[in-house]
Design brief:
Blueprint: H1 2-49, E1 56-61, E2 64-76, E3 79-84, E4 89-93, E5 97-100
Antiparallel strand pairs: 1-2, 1-5, 2-3, 3-4
Length: 105
């Protein structure tokens, strides 16, 4: 009889441990799903706001200052490629460029 009581105690303890593990796993999955959802919302907002914001770029090369009306630009690490309204392409380091817009914040 004592062995039966000990076995029941061990089984109930194991069941409790399994339920705790399952609950923490579900909580982790829920939190990661929420984080993923928030990240996607942020990405969508950034994509929506990136449309035609930059209107002008000022490129500094030594003592020379070049002002360009921006048609589109791409940034890859620390290199920026700017295409102006006339189709000319400028390729330089991002530290040499100031991107501006007409929007007042």
């Amino acid at each position: 009889m004592e062995i039966l009581i000990i076995l029941c105690t061990i089984i109930s303890a194991m069941a409790m441990i399994i339920s705790i593990i399952a609950m923490s796993t579900l909580k982790y999955l829920y939190n990661s799903k929420e984080t993923s959802k928030n990240s996607n919302l942020y990405d969508e907002a950034v994509e929506d706001n990136e449309v035609d914001i930059v209107q002008k770029a000022i490129i500094m090369l030594g003592d020379e200052k070049i002002e360009v009306e921006v048609d589109c630009y791409e940034i890859d690490y620390n290199i920026i490629k700017i295409t102006d309204k006339y189709g000319e392409v400028y390729l330089t380091y991002t530290k040499n460029v100031l991107l501006t817009s007409g929007y007042i914040i």
